[in-house]
Amino acid sequence: MWVNLLVILLQFLSGSIMYSYIIARIMKVNLSKIRDGNPGASNLWRALGWKYGVLALLLDYLKGVFPLAIFISLGIVKDNLIIALSALSGVMGHAFSPMLGFKGGKAVAVSFGAWSVLTKWEAPTILGTVFTIFTLIRPKGTTVGEDAYRVFLGYIFLLPYVLYKIFLSGFKDLHLLLFYIGNFAIILYKHYKDLWGYFRERESNKL
Fold first, then answer.
1. CB atoms within 10 A of CB 5
2. How far apart are CA 29 and CA 185, in angstroms?
3. N or C: fewer beta carbons within 10 Å in the chain?
């Protein structure tokens, strides 16, 4: 039990390291003044260019993978429930980072990493495809609200995949649904203001 708790804690601590914030501080950039003020890779990209943005995205992705993937590969963690809880803990670490007074970022890149641990390339491919299609139909760029809607759509399209995987496994992969519910709840919490603003704007445009 103590080993499992340690893995969950270490994954949370890994997720809580805000690389974009650290890089921005080193480069003397205040991310709170960039676009929506989110201390994540997308705003670092806008502030310092694609090289720093890609670096931050990669680091955020990897902290959703490690150290959990190492514990799994070494056979230290085998229980799917613990794996799901640990993966979710990493996402929570980013979304509610102690480094930033438990405010954190929007947890998209770190979620890609966590889903990679649970499903390898499958779930990240679904999310990435939806994000890419939505971006391509907005060639002039997206607003903060549209970004939130894009993430929301990605998770809606991800649900049938999760249910299919559970059915295919004979309901042995219920941990995927547990992680999905927790991950989606965090994503909605971190995006709800932008998402609500997006829906309100659409309704006002219809009037």
1. 12
2. 30
3. C
**In terms of pTM, does the model score above 0.90?**
yes
**Six token digits for residue 90:** 């990493």
| Alpha-carbon span 204 to 141, nearest angstrom | 21
Candidates 122, 202, 107; CA nearest to 162 is 122
Residue-wise pLDDT tens digits, 75-133: 999 999 999 999 999 999 999 999 999 999 999 999 999 999 999 999 999 999 999 99
Which one-letter amino acid corresponds to residue 74?
L
Written in H, E and C, the secondary structure of the chain is CHHHHHHHHHHHHHHHCCHHHHHHHHCCCCHHHCCCCCCCHHHHHHHHCHHHHHHHHHHHHHHHHCCHHHHHHCCCCCCHHHHHHHHHHHHHHHHCCHHHCCCCCCCHHHHHHHHHHHHCCHHHHHHHHHHHHHHHCCCCCCCHHHHHHHHHHHHHHHHHHHHHHHHHCCCCCHHHHHHHHHHHHHHHHHHHHHHHHHHHHHHHHHC
Query: Where are the chain's structural domains?
Result: 2-206
Exposed e or buried b per residue across 84-114, where buried means at least 16 C-beta atoms within 10 angstroms of its C-beta: bbbbbbbbbbbbbbeeeeeebbbbbbbbbbb
Position 46, amino acid:
R
Burial of 72 (0-12, 13-18, 19+ CB in 10 A): middle
